[in-house]
Amino acid sequence: MAATNARRSLRRDAQPLNPHPRLVLTTGEPAGIGPDLAVAAASRDWPCELVFAGDPGLLATRASQLGASVDVVDWRQSEPAPHRAGTLPVLPVRLQAPVHAGRPDPANARYVLETLDAAIEGCASGRFAAMVTAPVQKSVINDAGMPFTGHTEYLAARSGAPRPVMLLVAGTLRVALATTHLPLAEVPGHIQPGLLDEILDVLDRGLQAAFRLPAPRILVCGLNPHAGEGGHLGREEIEVIGPAVAAARARGIAARGPVAADTAFTPASLAATDAVLAMYHDQGLPVIKHAGFGRAVNVTLGLPFHRTSVDHGTALELAATGRVDPGSLYAAIELALRLSSPG
Questions:
Q1: What is the pLDDT of residues 268-327, one digit of tens each?
Q2: How much is the pLDDT for 2?
Q3: Which of 62, 104, 123, 255 is spaced 20 to 30 A from 32 at the CA atom?
Q4: Helix (H, G, I), strand (E, B) or coil at 116
């Protein structure tokens, strides 16, 4: 029912303009560091309202384990106001099984997805201006028998978005992905003209709307070493990527390429670029994580609401230890705030 309602009612203008947008944070894998990040975020002031989707008992327990002075309360909708340190308002979603930090349980896989569904429904109804997500453990969800390839794909399917685009942001460096969570052997078969046409359109519109770039300059990577070396190392650049770039330029998009990925990220190249489009996950993410790990943000373009996320995983070994760096979550909240603020 939530998915049906989301497809019917999700609109970018559903949330009234407010100087203090209300953001919903999903707390991720309960045995990982998602609850720790929620406690850290709740422990400081923010110029927006924060609501945390998760199990109240879990969050109270994790706060106690961390020695944090936060008051876990049920969220009651009212006029959005800035968050004050020490309060953790919860949109309640109940666990299915007890949680042991560092030991994920497939029995709680449904719980993880229900936190996402609650956030999607909240964005659909206009209660939330944007969504921020803590990391999930994809393998545990799959072990529970539920197909799940990642937040990007799940949020798109549940909200009816036809073509989501994953964009990683670290300062002024922005890297988008043509394909996301695929085995490397399957990537070439997915690099098709229709896919690239849609992704370049979504990326161009998203950069204009979210980052207020009037004519974003998009640099498109090749798939093969040396961008195919004139066809000697692969023909995808000649037969698919190059024509897609040309078609995008004919539609008024400031795209160029394909270029060799090993030179796309040089300082001179990036100086003339607003975003790089990489062809696959590990072509683009190592660069962004080297440049800004711990402060980079994952943004999903093409959804009917704003969504940001951390740039790291569940870090099971750090759960409840007090050694978690919340920098990426803070950056994700700050970017979600900027994206959802008027002006």
A1: 999 999 999 999 999 999 999 999 888 899 999 999 999 999 999 999 999 999 999 999
A2: 40
A3: 123
A4: helix
**Which domain CATH number covers 145?**
3.40.718.10
pLDDT band at 20 (very low <50, low <70, confident <90, very high): confident
Sheet holding 217-221, edge to edge: 71-74, 87-92, 49-54, 22-26, 130-133, 306-309, 297-301, 165-170, 173-177, 275-278, 217-221, 254-259
Provide CB contacts within 8 A for 210, sequence distance 6+: 299, 301, 306, 339
Phi and psi at residue 328, to the nearest 5°: -70, -35
Q: Which residues partner with 221 through β-bridges?
A: 259
242 and 285, same domain (yes or no): yes
Tokens of 281: 């996950």
**Structural domains in the chain (count):** 2
Q: What is the pTM of this model?
A: 0.89
2 and 148 assigned to the same domain:
yes
pLDDT in tens, 66-79: 999 999 999 988 88
Which residues, in sequence order, are CB contacts of 246 under 8 Å at separation 6+? none
> Contact, 196 vs 240, CB < 8 A?
yes
- Enumerate the β-bridge partners of residue 298: 168, 309
| pLDDT at position 96 | 97
Q: Are residues 272 and 311 in the same domain?
A: no
- pLDDT of 8 > 80? The answer is no
The tokens 């402060």 sit on which residue?
295
- The angle at the Cα of 94, spanning 93 to 95, to the nearest 5 degrees, equals 125
